[in-house]
Specification:
The complex is a heterodimer of chains A (about 220) and B (about 250).
Chain A (H helix, E strand, L loop, with lengths): L1 H7 L2 H42 L2 H16 L2 H11 L8 H27 L3 H9 L4 H16 L1 H14 L11 H12 L3 H30 L2
Chain B lengths: L7 E10 L2 E11 L4 E5 L6 H7 L8 E6 L2 E2 L7 H5 L2 E4 L11 H11 L5 H14 L15 H13 L5 E5 L7 H16 L3 E5 L3 H7 L2 E6 L2 E6 L1 H6 L4 H12 L1
Parallel strand pairs in B: 3-8, 3-9, 6-7, 7-8
Antiparallel strand pairs in B: 1-2, 1-4, 4-5, 9-10
């Protein structure tokens, strides 16, 4: 028991590693603040293309979504960071993360938005168009607000996954929370920083998890 | 009937879904201020015909003029044309995320470009016309089916269309709610609105229609004043259909 506490819940280590962990936490927040909006924007564009574009565009969007959901995000990120420079394209660590998340999580968000758009009855589009609204106006004011509402729990749920996935930025040497925790672990020969990192993720994401549950309950009640 | 040029003039409309011809060269002309009822068995093409008149359905062949606009011409600004053609649907199709008033305001603002105050005022007036001034701030889910359909009518008439199309406006309503919607339609008619109605409300047709069109198998089989179609139909199919409807 003594050994366990020493190795995993060592308060001295926490106080020592605190500044490093805090910096990692801030990086994780910054990475999330970049990747979530990018993924959402990419997702909306993909969903609109795959539901409302001409036939060829719809097929291309569907294929794109398939490809980037099938490629593991870690592989994609390493390729963008370490592979592209061989083609003379160096996007840097932040660039690789931005691009990788745009491609990967954009595709996941795209599928969520697509399900949302398809859940809006055709009659909504018809009613709006019959009053003279253009296709774009109809999507913006009538279809998308309902689509988002219908898939809100899935959107938030997906966002949780995205925040957790930002830990892969450690492979391109961005000092996010997990990266920093491992640095601290290596420096102290103690696993407590990893436990502290897990706790930090939990404190960050638990309110969001609760939010998903509440949204899901409300969606069930509204049915 | 008046002798002014028709406000709707559709000729030779063809529409196929897959291999199935739903409209087989249908003509329909409607005079200003006229109320035309289209009846017929399900699958006769009556709803498709109506939906061609504002191009929610794209005819494969034929021509449609509404208020002097060539609806099928590629040069036509379809969105501009559609605001002169109001449409009311069987399932109301109100926007569930907006209040009754916001439902009416959307096109006033985005299509006619009115500012918020002006649109709010006109929306209130339109809702008052359908007897729902009190319910302006309710969401569709808080309204009965009949009230929702009246909001849908307000949404259409607020744009001051030249023509109103009704696609089975009372079919989704409980019987006790039908009257309110028909009353609103009756008032519209008295105000001189040109209306094309697809519906099974035969009593309303008898009382209010100028002309009844009977369709079957994608063709116009017979048309005339209600008295003629209901009491002395010429076609055997028309007779059979009227008999069946009357039994209900």
């Amino acid at each position: 028991m003594e050994d366990f506490l020493f190795a995993f819940l060592n308060w001295d280590i926490v106080t020592q590693a605190w500044p490093i962990l805090w910096r990692g936490f801030l990086y994780t927040l910054a990475l999330s603040a970049m990747t979530v909006p990018l993924g959402l924007a990419g997702g909306v564009v993909l969903a609109l293309l795959s539901t409302s574009g001409p036939r060829l565009v719809r097929l291309l969007a569907a294929g794109w979504t398939d490809v980037f959901r099938a490629i593991p995000p870690l592989v994609l990120l390493v390729f963008l960071y370490a592979g592209l420079p061989f083609a003379g394209i160096d996007v840097g660590a932040w660039g690789a993360v931005a691009l990788g998340f745009l491609l990967n999580t954009g595709s996941y968000y795209g599928e969520v938005f697509r399900a949302g758009i398809e859940s809006v009855p055709r009659g909504q589009m018809e009613a709006a168009r019959s009053t003279g609204l253009s296709r774009g106006q109809t999507l913006r004011h009538v279809v998308l607000p309902q689509a988002v509402r219908n898939v809100l729990p899935d959107l938030v749920s997906n966002t949780l996954e995205v925040v957790k996935l930002t830990s892969i930025a450690s492979v391109v040497a961005l000092p996010e929370l997990l990266f920093q925790a491992r640095q601290a672990q290596n420096a102290t020969y103690n696993a407590t920083p990893i436990v502290a990192a897990a706790l930090a993720y939990f404190l960050l994401l638990w309110p969001v998890v609760r939010l998903v549950s509440r949204l899901e309950n409300r969606a069930l009640a509204g049915r | 009937m008046t002798h002014s040029p028709p406000i709707i003039d559709a000729r030779g409309l063809w529409k196929k879904f897959g291999g199935l011809a739903v409209l087989k060269g249908v003509d329909l002309s409607v005079a200003e201020r006229e109320l035309v009822f289209i009846i017929g068995p399900s699958g006769s093409g009556k709803s498709t015909l109506l939906r061609c008149l504002n191009r929610l359905e794209e005819p494969d062949d034929g021509s449609i003029q509404v208020d002097g606009i060539e609806l099928l011409s590629p040069k036509t600004d379809l969105n501009a044309a559609r605001r002169r053609i109001g449409m009311v649907f069987q399932s109301f199709n109100l926007y569930p995320h907006m209040t009754a008033r916001a439902n009416v305001m959307l096109a006033l603002r985005k299509v006619l470009g009115q500012d918020k105050d002006q649109a709010a005022q006109l929306a209130a007036r339109a809702l008052d016309r359908v007897g729902l001034a009190e319910r302006m701030d309710h969401y569709p889910a808080q309204l009965s089916g009949g009230q929702q359909q009246r909001v849908a009518i307000a949404r259409a008439i607020a744009l001051e269309p030249r023509v109103m199309l009704f696609d089975e406006p009372t079919s989704a309503l409980d019987p006790e709610l039908v009257g309110g919607v028909l009353n609103v339609m009756r008032e519209l008619r008295q105000d001189g609105m040109t209306m094309v109605v697809v519906s099974h409300e035969m009593a309303f047709a008898k009382a209010a229609a100028d002309r009844v069109v009977f369709m079957a198998d994608g063709q116009k089989l017979e048309e005339g004043p209600p008295a003629q179609i209901f009491d002395a139909p010429r076609h055997e199919r028309t007779r059979a259909f009227i008999r069946q409807i009357d039994r209900h």
